[in-house]
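Hello,

Our lab assistant flagged a job as stuck in the queue for most of the afternoon. It eventually completed. Since we weren't sure the result was trustworthy after the delay, we are filing this so someone can double-check. Below is the sequence as submitted and the structure that was eventually returned. Let us know if re-running is recommended.
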Amino acid sequence: MNKRVARRGFLASGAAVGVGALVSACTSNEPAAAPSSAAPQAAAAGTDNDKPGTAVTIGFSAPAADHGWIAAIAKNAEAQAKQYSDVTFKPVEPTNDINQQISAVESLIQAKVSALVILPNDGEQLNQVARKAMDAGIPVINLDRVFPDKLSYRTWIGGDNYGMGVAAGHYIGKKLKDKGVANPVILEIQGIATLPLTQDRSKGFADALKTYGFSVTAQQDAKFTVESGTQVASNLLQAHKKIDAIWNHDDDQGIGVLAAIKEANRNEFFMVGGAGSANAMRDIQAGSGVLEATVTYSPTMASSAIKIARLIAQGKGLSDLVENQVPQSITLASETITKENAEKYLPLGFES
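-- returned structure --
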């Protein structure tokens, strides 16, 4: 990703709701409901985790913001940290260079931060430095791209990549089945093919399509960039004179995909996007093009990661859970956004 993707900035409202339903519900100061007679034990009353507590420093490292989704990740994290008077937010220079990110994380370890939130360029290649942080007693909150060694992170939080594929597959499969289409031409435009998250998305998509008796006709990766999106879509459009449906993994690269479709003057198919960008939602609302839906992979997970890092560093748990500690992994749901519900999700969208 060498060229910066044009973007108009992240919706300010996204930061306010960026904690997501999961964590905002878990920090309520409302008392727990009375247990039924069948309950084995009563849960402790909830506590207000947002009240100021022990002062903590949270280090943050992520790839360079040359992509709308990554830009929103960084902005969400910073905005969430600013909500707490007891948090010092210590980000390092974002980079797409593996060695530079390793060095940046090492500097945070040397600074003895209270907790680390890391979205690695590549989980496998940054696994060792994350383990170094954990061994030094610094809890690592692994965001999105997972470290293969569970000893390298205290908690992982991210989207449901397999679920994204399943959601897209069901939308496409059901629509084609309902239309009575036999042997449909279904194209898949991936992000970065070598990433486990991409492979999970593709597997979910294939598995869901299989339940309808369908399969992917052709698959190509577009590396999460607008330029590659345009090039890959152009190639696929030229290779397939008739298409029934396209699933594009990423709404940022989808700008390029849609540009290629418009240039080719093709509209015999429908398309499903991925991640849930604001511009994709607006296109879906307008209903004037081939994009009919997108499946969520919200960058609000970064807001939740900061919340979780703070709780772990302060020795707190999620107050709506009976357990005393934050869970080891949190997977956010992948939801399907269509014209009918786009207005509800638009405040969570990010600008590509």
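-- support follow-up --
The delay was a queue issue, not a problem with the job. The result is valid. Residues 161-296 form a domain with the Rossmann fold fold (CATH 3.40.50.2300). The chain has two domains: 12-30+43-158+300-332, 161-296.
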